[in-house]
Amino acid sequence: MAATNINRVVMTGNLTRDPELRTTGSGTPVCSLRLACNTRRRDASGEWVDKANYFDVTVWGAQGENCATYLQKGRPVALDGRLEWREWQDQQGNKRQAVDIIADSVQFLGSRDGAENGGGRFGGSDVPTDTGDFEPAAAGAGPDDDIPF
To answer: Which CATH number does 9-89+96-120 carry?
Structure first.
């Protein structure tokens, strides 16, 4: 029996540029993203520093169209996908290679404007928050008042 290979990538990060949407010759939408994901390390002095890692991400089909419509530079996203190796020759004839992420799913994190609804660096949701359900109930207000827990 052949060994099974696993090729999965799960990461969160921020977009370093606006998404770029194009279509293939057959009309299939494809969106290109650039994602920055920090790694925390100690430097020579022992201080913790963040080192940015940058990844090219490709999103196909309707999800790629949604990324191009709703995402912009700086927006945090979470993605699940796989790695894909590619090789080509540049214009000078040099052999080039890269590893790209092909996203199977992209989850939009934070808010569109970064300020409303708990936006900011890691943000909240695009859905407005209704906090009415979380207000404390008045004493003696419910039928379960005699339950000791």
So the answer is: 2.40.50.140
